[in-house]
Amino acid sequence: MTRLLLVLSSILFLSACTSTSFLSKKSPILNDKAFETASDFNVETPEEIFALSDDAVNFVKRVTQSETTDFGKMSALVFAIFDRADLDLGYSAEANTVASDTFANGAANCLSLTVMAYSMADYLHIDARFQDVQIPEFWTFRQGESIINRHINLRVKKPARRFIPSMVNGDLIVDFDPSRNAKKFDSVELTKRQIVSYFYNNKGAEHLINGESAKAFAYYKAALEADPKNEGAWLNLGVLYSRNDMLEHAEEAYLHATSLKSNYLSALENLANIYKRTDRLEASKSLEARLHKKRLKNPYYHSMLAEHALIEEKPSDAIVHYKQAIKLNNRPHEFYFGLAKAYYAIGDFSRSSDALKKARMRSNDRRTSEQYSRKISLLAYNH
Predict the structure, then answer these.
(1) Going from the N-terminus, what domains does the chain have, and what CATH number goes with each?
(2) Of 151, 127, 113, 114, residue with least CA distance to 74
(3) How far apart are the C-alpha atoms of 81 and 65, rounded to whole Å?
């Protein structure tokens, strides 16, 4: 099955931002003429992305009013954001929203959570830092698309001799799952401008998934104007070109992405697809073999193969791939949920239920655990 990979900062560089003259002087890859109506669409300004509503400001004041230190205020704020009796913010991979909408909707992905939390910290005059958590390649699927996820969160440095819950190495981490994500992987600090670029890239991907090419181009262009070294935006721009049969432009975009990040496997996979579509079959096969070898030790790669096997109605193959993923890493609840779906597809309801129970046990999110409990009960009732 041929697929193109999109990059999203939903569950996400090193370099400082450069001037936007990079685009006009050195990059003919941006083809405005192919998407002329893109200029009619106004993307959100950085100010709009980070602005807080009056309700959000009042929330910040209320939950921090009893605290006297910056760190105490931030700790109280983080607790209130996730507390069931307060904001009770829930996770939604598709919630690519500005700060005010994230607060109003009560749902966020890692990027929109980070944007909102940063704005709240900024209102309190607290120094908070954006982080790119260096997770391995991690795939999700939406509307038939393969999506590579990157992960960001927010860090507030610890004061001397102070320990507070939700902390990693003493620092306060604003994340849906701070202990799982931040303890196991290194992090790289990001600038606010890079975060703006990631926001635009996410919005562009959403429009591309929905078949809105001109709007997608408008966001990708904005992403690259904010940070010309955002390799994920170059990759997604290549996907946009490929979808519109602009294969030379797509190849240029993928190659540029690989020049910004060495061993950029997602861009190389899409490049292999371009080679295949342009009858460079030997080059395509060679690149695909190289990618497969590099990914064999990544459990999420096997999970991705399993997901595609389910889509292709090959549940027995999916079981093999999910078991390999679990062998490499038995912690992610998603692997067991996928295994449960595969067992269900072959009519093995007992093993499906067992896998769901293991998924529930490994879930760190209350809403997800409750969903697993409902599925287990429904399975027991019907079978």
Answers:
(1) 1-295 (1.25.40.10), 299-382 (1.25.40.10)
(2) 127
(3) 15
